[in-house]
Amino acid sequence: MYEIEFTDEAEEDLRWFRKDNRQEILDNIETQLSYEPTVETRNRFRTRPNQTAEWELRIGKFRVFYDVDNVVRIVSIEAVGLKLGNRLFFRGKEREL
User: Fold this and answer.
1) What range defines the domain where residue 8 resides?
2) Is the CB of residue 81 less than 8 Å from the CB of residue 65?
3) How confident is the model over 67-73, as a mean pLDDT?
4) b/e per residue, 20-42, with b = 16+ CB within 10 A?
5) 23, 82, 61, 84 alpha-carbon torsion, rounded to 10°
6) pLDDT per residue over 20-36, tens digit each?
7) What DSSP line would sit under 48-97, residue for residue?
8) Which one, of 18, 33, 17, 42, lies nearest residue 70 by Cα?
9) What is the CATH number of the domain that holds 33?
10) Could you give the number of structural domains in the chain?
């Protein structure tokens, strides 16, 4: 089992969402990333090289970007955003990865 940690930035990203959306995101993070976070699925995959994170988890219109340290078994949540069409928003502002 992997321990899940949030960066300060990811915690700020989460606070931007409504409580019900935040709970949906947190529930999916726990379910999807506690075991085998580096096994690619339809909704969990490696991102193209970027400065944010190596992995992406899709939860409906939400996106969770994370890195994995397999040696100490930690998943580090780096950012949480909202995807609308082909645009990605973090804390209400559009941003590229």
Assistant:
1) 3-94
2) yes
3) 97
4) ebbeebbebbeebbeeebeeeee
5) 160
6) 999 999 999 999 999 99
7) PS-SS-SEEEEETTEEEEEEEETTTTEEEEEEEEEEETTEEEETTEE---
8) 33
9) 3.30.2310.20
10) 1
